[in-house]
């Protein structure tokens, strides 16, 4: 019945028709909902699907059952889930002046317990808008060649380590640790400028090593609190909470020490720190902004790089083409990787006002969850959606996209006022590093079976990726 109702209202849903042709608005309670049990609701269904680590698959299954919009609970909160690209874009158009999103509960509990003020990700209202405008100006607009230079420097460092182990005939040890180090190299190089980092590498690298290890620990300990109510974990001070709390304290301390060290020893650098000073930020605000930039970029770029290398390892033809230094292809490999393996499979917004979404009246304050894992793998958006095909992103023709444009059907960095502030940094570091690695190495995967996805704060490989680097 729900399917006939949607077809009547939306016409040829999911195939590029405009949503402005609604003939009526349906009640919020009419949104399709999975069958629920008394008290526990759909919790048992989620557990049967694999629990929180398989939330993306559970939601994807629900979309296939119920359609591109359904209503379900996220813990005690009722949420509306969306997978249609144009409807998701309509949410961003109605997100308001000060968009609100879900923040990780363990972090909120930590911030409250320690009276700790965080950066952009945790800010709201006028305060958020003030600092967001400054960061937009510095990281998203104008000539950003200085960011690419910083990423080139960091890519050279990890490539140098790859070459060192290759020449010794040894396997590349502690791969995940090295990727976190590379990610922190990028951020610190962005902070002081590529030239300053190159000239002072012996002084800066030791503090980056410490920073990388503490950031990695935060990710690992946070992911272990996924299934536990953070408020209760903190109240009873259980071991998982203590490990998380200690890791966050160490990471924030490390991030602040890095900023202090860089500002003290390299006040004339040509990176983000000096630019923030020129914008009038004081030291406290600078530390908050930079700490969030550091903690937000560690796991996201680490796992995206892993997925990229895994995919090109399975597609030697794409890898061979990359060796020509084709920047457009590198960009499209990244886009295709994030379509298939978005590190954040869900985008969230709390609707500031009542809104019409996909023909339904949605009350103010409702949590809307945009399922970009599903939209990126939907055959209504992409032909052969499960296929890794970077050329589908070429502007010269409709390579594998149906109905809506590929730009609309994959939104790994979100869009609108609260889109990812580190987007340009992440894009540059991933593309630059990919091109440098394939120029020197043939990358192969030793995994015998297809590697799945699990949710551990971000979408990560379900088993360790075994990558082999052979010098060309």
Automatic annotation (TrEMBL):
GO molecular-function terms, A-Z: heme binding; iron ion binding; monooxygenase activity; oxidoreductase activity, acting on paired donors, with incorporation or reduction of molecular oxygen
Cofactor: heme
Pfam families assigned to the protein according to its UniProt record, in alphabetical order: p450 (PF00067)
Record key words, sorted: Heme, Iron, Metal-binding, Monooxygenase, Oxidoreductase
Mitochondrion in keyword set: no
Binding-site residues, heme: 420
Protein family membership: Belongs to the cytochrome P450 family.
Name of the protein in its database record: Cytochrome P450
């Amino acid at each position: 019945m729900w399917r006939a109702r949607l077809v009547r209202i939306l016409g040829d849903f999911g195939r590029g028709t405009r949503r402005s042709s609604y003939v009526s608005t349906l009640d919020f309670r009419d949104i399709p909902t999975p069958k629920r049990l008394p008290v526990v609701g759909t919790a048992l269904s989620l557990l049967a699907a694999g629990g929180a680590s398989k939330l993306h698959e559970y939601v994807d299954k629900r979309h296939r059952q119920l359609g591109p919009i359904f209503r379900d609970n996220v813990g005690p909160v009722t949420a509306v889930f969306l997978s249609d690209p144009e409807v998701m874009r309509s949410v961003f158009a109605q997100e308001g002046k000060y968009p609100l999103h879900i923040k990780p509960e363990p972090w909120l509990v930590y911030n409250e317990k320690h009276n700790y003020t965080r950066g952009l990700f945790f800010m709201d209202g006028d305060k958020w808008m003030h600092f967001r405008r400054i960061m937009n100006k510095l990281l998203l607009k104008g000539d950003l060649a200085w960011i690419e230079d910083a990423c080139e420097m960091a890519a050279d460092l990890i490539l140098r380590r790859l070459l060192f182990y290759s020449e010794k005939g040894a396997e590349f040890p502690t791969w995940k640790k090295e990727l976190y180090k590379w990610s922190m190299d990028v951020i610190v190089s962005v902070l002081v400028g590529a030239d300053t980092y190159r000239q002072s590498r012996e002084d800066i690298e030791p503090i980056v090593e410490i920073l990388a290890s503490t950031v990695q620990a935060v990710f690992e300990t946070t992911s272990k609190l996924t299934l536990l109510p953070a408020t209760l974990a903190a109240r009873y001070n259980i071991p998982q909470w203590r490990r998380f709390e200690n890791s966050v304290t160490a990471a924030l301390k490390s991030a602040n020490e890095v900023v202090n060290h860089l500002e003290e020893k390299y006040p004339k650098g040509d990176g983000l720190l000096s630019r923030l000073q020129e914008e009038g930020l004081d030291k406290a605000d600078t530390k908050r902004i930079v700490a969030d930039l550091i903690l937000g970029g560690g796991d996201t770029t680490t796992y995206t790089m892993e997925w990229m290398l895994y995919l090109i390892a399975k597609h030697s033809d794409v890898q061979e083409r990359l060796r020509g230094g084709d920047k457009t292809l590198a960009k499209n490999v990244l886009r295709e990787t994030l379509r298939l393996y978005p590190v954040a499979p869900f985008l969230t917004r709390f609707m500031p006002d009542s809104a019409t979404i996909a023909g339904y009246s949605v009350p103010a304050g409702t949590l809307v969850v945009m399922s970009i894992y599903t939209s990126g793998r939907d055959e209504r958006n992409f032909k052969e959606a499960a296929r890794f095909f970077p050329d589908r992103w070429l502007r010269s023709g409709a390579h594998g996209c149906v109905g809506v444009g590929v730009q609309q059907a994959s939104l790994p960095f979100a869009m609108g006022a609260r889109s990812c502030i580190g987007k340009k940094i992440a894009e540059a570091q991933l593309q630059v590093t990919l091109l440098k690695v394939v120029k020197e190495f043939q990358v192969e995967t030793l995994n015998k079976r297809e590697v799945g996805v699990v949710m551990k704060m971000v979408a990560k490989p379900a088993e360790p990726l075994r990558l082999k680097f052979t010098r060309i």
